[in-house]
Amino acid sequence: MRIEILTVGGEILVGRTLDTNFHFLARSLARLGTPPAWHTTVPDVREMISAALETAMARADCVIMTGGLGGTPDDLTRRVLSQVLGRPLVLREEVLRDVEEVYRRRGRIAPPAAQAMALVPNGAQMIANPVGLAPGLILPTPRGGSIIALPGVPEEMKAQVEQFVLPMLERQLGGSRVTEVVLRTAGVPESVLAESLGQAHPAGCDVAYLPHWGGVDLCLVRSADAPSSSEEFRQWADGIRERLDDAVYATGDESLEQAVGRLLLERGLRLAVAESLTGGGVGAALTRVPGSSAYFLGSIVAYDNDVKVKALGVSRATLLNHGAVSAATAEEMASGVRRFCGSDLAVSTTGIAGPSGGSDEKPVGLVYLGLASAQGLAHVRRLYPGRTREGVVARSIQGVLWLLYRHLRGLKVDDRFPDRGGEAGPGRDPGR
Amino acid sequence: MRIEILTVGGEILVGRTLDTNFHFLARSLARLGTPPAWHTTVPDVREMISAALETAMARADCVIMTGGLGGTPDDLTRRVLSQVLGRPLVLREEVLRDVEEVYRRRGRIAPPAAQAMALVPNGAQMIANPVGLAPGLILPTPRGGSIIALPGVPEEMKAQVEQFVLPMLERQLGGSRVTEVVLRTAGVPESVLAESLGQAHPAGCDVAYLPHWGGVDLCLVRSADAPSSSEEFRQWADGIRERLDDAVYATGDESLEQAVGRLLLERGLRLAVAESLTGGGVGAALTRVPGSSAYFLGSIVAYDNDVKVKALGVSRATLLNHGAVSAATAEEMASGVRRFCGSDLAVSTTGIAGPSGGSDEKPVGLVYLGLASAQGLAHVRRLYPGRTREGVVARSIQGVLWLLYRHLRGLKVDDRFPDRGGEAGPGRDPGR
Q: Of B150, B126, B140, B208, which is closest to residue B24 (Cα–Cα)?
């Protein structure tokens, strides 16, 4: 099956919005073994959507459209589908009822714009929207293919894809599948990973390196028509996992904060955090995990030095003699928040996020991460590439989660690659 | 000038890599007033690149290709260009010399793959690569248009675009430019904005609605060939701005946290934050702004009730009688952190992020936002759509920044649309 994804959205073409919908769809389809063969983006202009749809219908078996299904005047997808497929727009009573019901529950009357969502091309199969208003649509093409139109709102699109579109495509595709194992690593640079993996792999199997702020994901793939067996693939993947040992924090989709949360729960430990340059980002990452209130007590974001002294008990002498960005301050912050919150464990971040505030001695990107536990205090020093404020902060958040993870696993928390700075901590920039 | 961007890269279509090159190009072209009209992505397959290039040449005046210019066998762009344009590949001595020179400086001999980079379609104009090996190419099309082929490595592509492509396009575009005004709004649902804007606008001018967690951006555009004058456009845009009054927090690229930061700086006020369900996200947002240490003192993330009592001075009686998710707790949190940090202003968040923890009386998505200042205490109650934890938290962060913004502007901080819950506070989901 050859799939084209057609994104409708001027906001993407002017560079205002990253097309995360496409990325999600591509990833999901690749997992099914049918990555999209084309991706086209057009603005919310009627003729341009029509032309792109005609092109897509001519070359692909299945066209997945996102966007333009809302009720405002610039939502054109339903009208374009009607015209291109020669199917008049008809009012679907059941959709109108659903839309009106949602407004009723909010104590409002559905405006005309919302009612427009119930006008769909004749013969469309509807995809329920479990998290919003606009239903998705499935329509057959004259050539025997199909068009799947989904809302542009990411969570609505995702819910419809996961609950309906993927199961449907999986049924249509039958047995032939790609096998994929994802090993999530941190603390080892991509080049070192590549060396330790070597070149040899079973026929039809391959490794992709996917670096991101938190480390490098290794994506081991066996194609559907690989000459090697599933068993050979499995042994190869297991071998890599063993060789990389404790650099692998999770398999599959688990994030570092989820892995940390799992270990804290297992060990019955409670955590507090003291943050400076991360500004609250460590707490925000930890609390992305549902149920994190079982182990996360809180975080004190001491951006100002007076707050470091007052809330965390960092001594004025330490600030004076070593500075706010120092190993001593990081350790006092961790021990201070542990005491203040009465937690079992605590971690801390302090550093220079930039773009200003750096010096020869303490450049932008210099970060100290602290850890306090019943066993005492520890810290690591990191020198991340200081190219962007966002990058330094993101790496610091991932770095301190990694420190915590290693402590919880009983692994050494000192610098594993002390001289490699940013490359050694979390991986290099997410990039193309 | 109608521009198409053609991305060559299988790694993007399988969802491994986000196409940041496209995003950069789109943003840069939009700033020139000529955002791309199409974006197409194809895998590294010869026939598919050819077909996409033919389509692009037929509809666009300028095709910008990225990727496939390296020296490995899967780098097909030069060969496809040669075939589609009927221009044989010729060896460019000066390129070969440059490539060999780079290798010589590294103490190596250029491998055959590197030499392949000097084989380019006859008549190509070369774009020097200041940060890598592969030069870019410019070729005329039979229809009088042009093709610009750039390397896929982001830094190399960016350097060539900034140093060469943008200046060239700017010269070609001359005076005729699109005019764009972006009004960033919060607190008013998209449907209400649409009603208050009405349908009438000057010929050739249009509005796009770009919803995101923090509100709705209105993008007012006048096309280069609009029959209406720049003056008419300006008056229309000013009229909208006035009509929407205080729902507009910024014009252009400024974010809500930047707008808040600007006002705090102007007024010489210092801020502290108390967070519960946002877990540190409010502090993280505020500190994304460089220089925020001038007005942001810190944040106390009191996820646990004991921390609310101990660090923020919330009374046990309040927690017992009203619960942690209540107006009283929100106000005590704000006033507690203001006192603790000695700030002029303080805001707070408490609520139920879900997916569990909700009840009939206090459902997932119920959020109280508090504010403490020299003038006293205030709060707003929000009922955000509780569909995803991520959404409730993101809306709460934007909601409290909006509250702060209104306070700083001297506007009413009570619920402006008290019964509209999430749709009313920050806008609907990030659109796409």
A: B150
Task: Determine the Cα–Cα distance for residues A381 and B194; give it in Å rounded to an integer.
Answer: 52
Instruction: Given CATH 3.90.950.20, say whether it is the number of domain B256-421.
Output: yes
Residue A290, preceding peptide bond in cis (omega within 30° of 0) = no
Query: What is the average pLDDT value for chain A, to the nearest integer?
Result: 88
For B408-417, which contacts have Cβ atoms below 8 Å and span 24 or more sequence positions?
B408/B260, B408/B263, B408/B264, B408/B267, B408/B269, B409/B246, B409/B263, B411/B246, B413/B371, B413/B378, B413/B380, B414/B378, B414/B380, B415/B380, B415/B381, B416/B187, B416/B188, B417/B187, B417/B188, B417/B189, B417/B192
SS3 B432: coil
CA distance B189 to B255: 18
Facing residue for B13 by CB, picked from A39, A281, A292: A39
Give the predicted TM-score (pTM) of the model: 0.76
Q: Is it true that A3-173 and A179-251 share their CATH fold?
A: no
Q: Is residue B132 less than 8 Å (CB to CB) from chain A? A: no
Check B432 against A20: CB less than 8 A apart.
yes
Shortest alpha-carbon distance between residue B308 and chain A (Å): 9
Q: B338-390, pLDDT tens digit by residue?
A: 999 999 999 999 999 999 989 999 999 999 999 999 999 999 999 988 778 98
Q: What is the CATH number of domain A3-173?
A: 3.40.980.10
Cβ pair A29, A178 in contact under 8 A: no
* Domain B179-251 class in CATH: alpha beta
Residue of chain A nearest B383, judged by CA positions: A106
What would the pLDDT profile of B41-90 be if each residue is shown by its tens digit? Answer: 999 899 999 999 999 999 999 999 999 888 777 789 999 999 999 999 99
Asked whether the beta carbons of residue A106 and residue B421 sit closer than 8 angstroms, the reply is yes
Given an 8 Å threshold on Cβ–Cβ distance, is A27 in contact with B21? no
Look up tokens 């799947």; give the residue.
Answer: A148
Chain A nearest-CA distance from B93, in A, is 30
CATH entry, A256-424, from 2.40.30.10, 3.30.420.40, 3.40.50.300, 3.90.950.20? 3.90.950.20
Is B191 close to A131, i.e. CB distance below 8 A?
Answer: no
pLDDT digits 0-9 by tens, A151-168: 998 889 999 999 999 999
> Which pLDDT score, from 0 to 100, does residue B423 have?
33
Written as six digits, the tokens of A257 are 């904060």
Q: Alpha carbon of A68 to those of A49, A71, A110, B215, B264: distances in Å? A: 10, 8, 19, 18, 38
Residues 6+ apart with CB under 8 A from B52: A38, B6, B40, B42
Q: How far apart are alpha carbons A295 and A35 in whole angstroms?
A: 39
Cross-chain Cβ contact B38/A41 below 8 Å: yes
**A69: closest chain B residue by CA:** B431
Contacts of A425 (CB under 8 A, 6+ apart): A187, A382, A384, A395, A398, A399, A402
B287/A279 Cβ within 8 A: yes
- The two counts, helices (H) then strands (E), for chain A are 17, 17
Best probe of the A interface among B66, B301, B420, by most A CBs < 10 A, is B301
The domain locations on chain A are 3-173, 179-251, 256-424
